[in-house]
C-alpha cells in the first residue's frame, strides 16, 4: 500500500482508517490483472463487484435512514484507493455516486426508494447528463428543453461527453424549463435509459477508454413526477452535486499520483545505472522529493475540503476547487516525472505508468476544467476579503 501515514491525520475518524485498509485489501484481491478488453462489460462487472463488496453503499445516502448523508471523506478515500489500483474501478464507483447524487441530495422519498437501492446493489448504472455541445463549463447556457405538457415533460435536445452513456439505466438530465433566464430556468429530471424518444446518438472514444456517449432526446416524454426538486432549481442542484463530488475527482488524481510515486520508488531502488541504484543520482532524488511533496500537498487539500463538507459547511466551492485544480494538475506532473524515470517502460503500451499517463489527463477537464477552477477560486477569494 506504500505510505499510509496520511491516515493518522486529524481529518479522519477510526472508521475512515478501517475503510482505507479494508478497501485496499479487497482491491488487491479483486482488481489485480483485471481484463479491460471490453470497456462496457468491464464497467458492468466492476459495478457488480463493488456492490457485492458493499462499497456502493457509500456512493449514495441510505434511503431507509432519514438522517443518512453522504460522507465525503469516505467517498474520497474510496476514490483514491480504487484509482491507485485501477482507473476504471474508480470510474465505475464514481459514476454510481455522481449519477445518482441529485437524487441523494434533492430527491423525493419516492424517488430515493425507487432508484437508490438499485444503484447501491449495482442493478442499474447511473449517469450525470449536464454537458452539451455548446455548454460544457457554461452550465447556465444549457439549451436542451423540457416543455410541460399536462402531467408530463417533453425533452428535446442533446447532451454530450456523458459518462456511462450507452450502459446506464438511470440518467439525471438537466434541461431548460424556462422559469427564468440563464441559470434560473433549469430543472433536473430522472430519465430511465429505455424511455421512448431517448437514444444514444454516438459513442465517444478517448485516450483512456471509458463508456462515453452523445445523447439525443426527440419528443422524449417523462412524467412530471420525475423532476427532481422544484422547477428552476436545476442549476442549484447541479452545483450542489458538484460541490460534493468535485473533491472526489481530486482524490482520484491523488490515487493516480500516489501509485506513480510508489512505482517510481520501486524503480529507483531496484534499477541500476552506472553501477549503482538509480536513486543514488541526486537529480533522481530531487524528482522523488518533488513528487512526494506534490502528493502530500494534494492530500492535504483533498481531505481539508472533504472534512469541511462533512463538518457541516453549506458550500465548499473554494476548497473543492483548490483541491481539484492542484491535485489534477500536479498529478499530471508527478506521473510525467514517473514516465521520465521509467524511460522506455514508461511509454510502453500496457505498462502501469503508461496507463496512468493516459488516465490522468481527462481529470483536468471534467467536472470543471482547471481554468474554470481558477475562476471559482479567484471569485470566492475576493468574496471573502
Provide an overview of this structure.
There is one protein chain. The protein is α+β, with helices and mostly antiparallel strands and 385 residues long. It contains ten helices and ten strands. The strands form three sheets. It has a four-stranded mixed beta sheet with strand order 1-4-5-8. Strands 2-3-7-6 form a four-stranded antiparallel beta sheet, with no helix packed on it. It has a two-stranded antiparallel sheet with strand order 9-10. A hairpin with a 2-residue loop joins strand 2 and strand 3. The longest helix is centred in the middle third of the chain and has 37 residues. The protein is globular and about 80 Å long. The two termini are 41 Å apart.
- The helix-and-strand class reads alpha+beta
User: What sort of overall outline do the alpha carbons produce when their principal axes are compared?
Assistant: globular
- Encode the helix/strand succession as letters: HHHHHEEEEEEEEHEEHHHH
Total helix count?
10
| Biggest β-sheet description | 4 strands, mixed
> What is the percent of helical residues?
40-55%
Overall pLDDT metric: 94
Give the amount of beta strand, in percent. 15-25%
- What gyration radius follows from the Cα positions, in whole Å? 21 Å
Strand arrangement, largest sheet? 1-4-5-8
Pfam families: Acyl-CoA_dh_1 (PF00441), Acyl-CoA_dh_M (PF02770), Acyl-CoA_dh_N (PF02771)
Domain Acyl-CoA dehydrogenase/oxidase C-terminal: 232-381
Domain Acyl-CoA oxidase/dehydrogenase middle: 127-219
Cofactor: FAD
Amino acid at each position: 500500500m506504500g505510505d499510509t501515514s496520511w491516515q493518522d491525520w486529524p481529518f479522519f475518524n477510526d472508521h475512515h482508517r478501517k475503510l482505507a485498509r479494508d478497501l485496499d485489501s479487497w482491491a488487491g484481491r479483486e482488481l489485480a490483472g483485471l481484463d479491460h478488453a471490453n470497456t462496457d462489460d468491464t464497467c458492468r462487472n466492476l459495478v457488480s463487484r463493488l456492490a457485492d463488496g458493499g462499497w456502493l453503499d457509500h456512493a449514495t445516502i441510505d434511503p431507509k435512514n432519514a438522517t443518512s448523508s453522504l460522507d465525503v471523506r469516505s467517498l474520497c478515500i474510496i476514490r483514491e484507493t480504487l484509482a491507485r489500483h485501477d482507473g476504471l474501478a474508480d470510474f465505475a464507483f464514481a459514476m454510481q455516486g455522481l449519477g445518482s447524487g441529485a437524487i441523494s441530495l434533492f430527491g423525493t422519498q419516492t424517488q430515493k426508494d425507487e432508484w437508490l437501492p438499485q444503484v447501491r446493489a449495482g442493478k442499474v448504472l447511473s449517469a450525470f447528463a449536464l454537458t452539451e455541445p455548446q455548454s460544457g463549463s457554461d452550465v447556465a447556457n444549457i439549451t436542451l428543453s423540457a416543455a410541460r405538457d399536462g402531467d408530463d415533460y417533453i425533452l428535446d435536445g442533446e447532451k454530450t461527453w456523458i459518462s456511462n452513456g450507452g450502459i446506464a439505466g438511470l440518467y439525471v438530465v438537466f434541461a431548460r424549463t424556462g422559469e427564468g433566464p440563464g441559470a434560473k430556468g433549469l430543472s433536473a429530471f430522472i430519465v430511465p435509459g429505455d424511455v421512448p424518444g431517448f437514444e444514444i446518438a454516438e459513442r465517444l472514444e478517448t485516450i483512456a477508454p471509458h463508456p462515453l456517449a452523445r445523447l439525443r432526446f426527440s419528443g422524449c416524454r417523462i412524467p412530471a413526477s420525475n423532476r427532481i426538486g422544484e422547477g428552476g432549481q436545476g442549476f442549484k442542484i447541479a452545483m450542489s452535486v458538484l460541490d460534493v463530488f468535485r473533491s472526489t475527482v481530486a482524490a482520484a488524481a491523488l490515487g493516480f499520483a500516489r501509485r506513480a510515486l510508489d512505482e517510481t520508488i520501486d524503480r529507483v531502488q531496484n534499477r541500476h545505472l552506472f553501477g549503482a541504484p538509480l536513486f543514488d543520482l541526486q537529480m533522481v532524488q530531487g524528482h522523488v522529493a518533488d513528487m512526494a511533496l506534490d502528493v502530500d500537498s494534494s492530500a492535504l487539500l483533498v481531505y481539508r475540503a472533504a472534512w469541511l463538507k462533512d463538518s457541516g459547511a453549506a458550500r465548499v466551492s473554494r476548497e473543492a476547487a483548490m483541491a481539484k485544480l492542484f491535485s489534477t494538475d500536479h498529478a499530471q506532473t508527478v506521473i510525467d516525472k514517473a514516465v521520465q524515470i521509467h524511460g522506455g517502460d514508461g511509454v510502453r503500451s500496457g505498462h502501469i505508468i503508461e496507463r496512468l499517463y493516459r488516465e490522468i489527463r481527462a481529470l483536468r477537464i471534467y467536472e470543471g476544467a482547471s481554468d474554470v477552477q481558477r475562476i471559482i477560486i479567484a471569485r470566492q477569494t475576493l468574496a471573502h476579503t
